[in-house]
Records
---
Amino acid sequence: MVSVTGELRSLVRVQDVYEEFGTPVDTAIGQIQIERRLAATYLGTSRRRQGFGAQGAEGVSVRASLP
C-alpha cells in the first residue's frame, strides 16, 4: 500500500523544484531559445566577416549583379 503522506511529500518536493528551476517544458523552451540565439549570432558573425560580396567555396564571388 502506498502512503498518501509520502506521495504528498514527493509532490511538494517536485513543486519546489519546479518553482525554483521551472518545469521540463520551460526548460526545453529555454534551451531552444538559447540555441536559436547562438545560431543567429554564429550566422551573423560569418556574414559580417565576409561582407556583402562574399566569396563562395570555389572563390567565385556570389554578389548579385543588377541589370
---
Amino acid sequence: MSNSRISQPILTAEKLWPGGIPEFVRVHPTDDLIDGPEEWNWKNWTIECKGWCQFVEEEWVPMTDLNEEMRQRRKLIERWASADQAFRDSFHARSPERESALDYPAHLLSEEGLDEQPFVCLASVDKELYPDNYIRFVKNLILLYLHDNQGGGYHPMSRRDWKRDPSPTIPDILIDSSTTPDYIKFFSHHDLLINLYLHPADFRAVSMTRLGTVVFPHERSNSIYTVIDQDNLDLGRVAVMTFKPNGKIGEYANVFAWNFAWMDSYHYGLGWGYDLLFNGEDCNYATPYCNEPVKMDDPLMCIVDSLIQRRNLNSFGSRSEEWEDEIQRLAPGYLALEAQGREVEFDLADLWNEEGLCYNHYTLEQKKHYRETGSYFMPPRRFIPPSPKPVPATTLPPPSGALGMSFHQLFQDKLGVKADKK
C-alpha cells in the first residue's frame, strides 16, 4: 500500500487458505440449530460446540511459529468437518461444561482481542493502480467527518480501539488487489466473516458445532461492521451491517455519516439494539430516503452544496463557506490539491486524528472568537431597543366658537406654543 496511513492488508498471502477453503468445510446453513433449539443464544452455542472445544484441547500440539499454528488450526477444522458423526459425538459426550463456544486453551488464542467495531474497505484503492478510486476513497473518508453536530459530536469510528489502531478513521484493507489475481471474489460483504476469520482459522471468532459446521458464535445484534465497498465508494456512503452466527447478514443499510452518528448515539447512549435502528419503524436513520446517494466524481464542495440543498447538512444553513472552512480544518490541503487537479496526491496522514475524535462544527465567527479568547462560547448579544423619535410640536387649527377657543388656547400653552396674535 502506498499511503502512510493505510495499513497492511488483513489477508496477507499466508492468511489465505491454500487452494481455497475446502468444500466440505461448510458454514452452518441456517441461523438456528438442526435438531436443536429454535434460536441461538449464548448457552446453547456453548453446549452445541463443547465437543469441538474438547477435540481441540486434546489434539493441539504446541508450536512456536505463528504460521505453523495457523496451519494446524486449519487441519483441525478439516478433520472435524470431515469426521463421521460418531467421532464428533464421542467428544461431545465426554466434554465437561464449557464457559463459552470459544473455550479454547488460553495459549491457542492471540493476546490481542478482536476489533469491536471493524471498519473494512472492500475495494481497490491503491493510488498508483486505481487513482480514481483512491480519490473517491479520500472524499468518502472526508464526508465521514461531517457528522453535522449529530449524535454527540463524535466521528462514527470514534469507538474503535486506539491502542490497536492509531488511525481509526482509516478502514483496514481486506486484501491487496495488486498481488492477488482473483481479489475480486473477496470483495463481497456477504462473505466478510468467512474472509476475515475462517481463512486464517481465527479461533477468537470461529467455532464448530457437533454437526461439523462452522459458526461465529459471538456475532449478535450489538456487533456492527462498517464497510466501504465499490458501490458505496461511488455513491458517498458506508455500509453498516450485523451478522448472524452462521455468517449471514443480519441487518444492513447504506448510510451517511450524520445518520450513522445518530444510530451510534442511540445504541451506546440509550441501549437500542441495531435491529431497532435498522427496521425503519422505530427510527428512520437507516432508511434509503434519508441516505440518497451523491455523485462522488464531482468536486468535493459541489457534493457538499448538493447535500446542503437536500437539507442533509444543516449545521450552517445554506452557508457552504462554513463547510469549506471545516473541510480545511479536518482535511488540510485537500481542497487546494483538488483545485489543481492533484487530489490523488493527498496523504491520509493529513486527516484530522486527535484521540477521542470528538469535535463540533463551529462557525467562522465562533472560530475567530476562539482565537481571540480561547473559548468558542459567545455570550448572547444584548438587545438594545432603538431610541424613540421625539414628537415635534404641532400648531393645531383653532376650533370655532368662544369655548373651543379657550380649550385651544389651553392646549397650545401645554405644548409650549404661543398662539398667534391677531
---
Amino acid sequence: MALATTHLWLAQLLKSFKWVPSKNGVDLSGNLKMSLEMKNPLVCVAIPRY
C-alpha cells in the first residue's frame, strides 16, 4: 500500500510541474563522510504547468 501511494504522489508531482535542472548543472564529484554524498546537492526547479 505504501509503495502504491508513493507512486501516485510522484506521478502527481511529475504531472503538475515542469522540471528543469538548475543553471549550475550537475556535479557528480563525491564527498566521503559516513556515506558517499554529492558535494553539492542536486537542485531542480519546479515550474507549475497550470
